[in-house]
Every structure is written in C-alpha cells, then in structure tokens.
Amino acid sequence: MEVCPFCNGLASTPYTCPQCVEVLQDCGKTVDYLDNYSPYLDQQILQEVDGLPHAESNTYCVHIFYCPACRIEYEMKIHVI
Ligand SMILES: [Zn+2]
Ligand SMILES: [Zn+2]
After folding, report:
1. How remote is the CA of residue 70 from the centroid of ligand 1, in Å?
2. In terms of residue numbers, what domain contains 19?
3. Per-residue model confidence as pLDDT tens for the chain (81 residues)
4. Structural domain total, the chain
5. Which pTM does this prediction carry?
C-alpha cells in the first residue's frame, strides 16, 4: 500500500515557499483539514472535496502548507510512495 511521506513523517525535504523560501508548515491533509468542519461527510464526498478524481486520490495526498512569513496557505499534491 502506498503511503504519503508527509503523513508518515518520512519526507526528507520540506517544501519551501515559492515567494520567500521560508520552510512551509505542513498543516495536514486537505481531507483532515476539512474534516474539522464537516465530520459527517462520507469518504466519497471528501474525495470530491479533495478536488481529485478517485484514481488520483490513490496517487496523491493533498496537503495544506502554510508560510508563516507570507501568511499564505498552499495546497500541494504529494505523490505517495
Ligand atoms: Zn499526506
Ligand atoms: Zn512565504
């Protein structure tokens, strides 16, 4: 089974902000993030909220990254390994 390096603490290279090169904070998966606000959504709906078709949901893990310097959130598709 594929695992996301960011979900499992395996990522060796942190993402940096494209604007200021600050190291971005991983705020977690988009799905978990949204889950805080919508705990009753089922998996099917969450995958659609993810913005990814079902096939891509098995290939990518979408994370929210936050730059503390720019105060901007970035959505990144992480390729699972
Ligand atoms: Zn992940
Ligand atoms: Zn920045």
Report:
1. 23
2. 1-81
3. 788 999 998 888 889 999 999 999 999 888 765 555 544 445 555 555 566 666 677 788 999 999 999 999 999 899 998
4. 1
5. 0.69
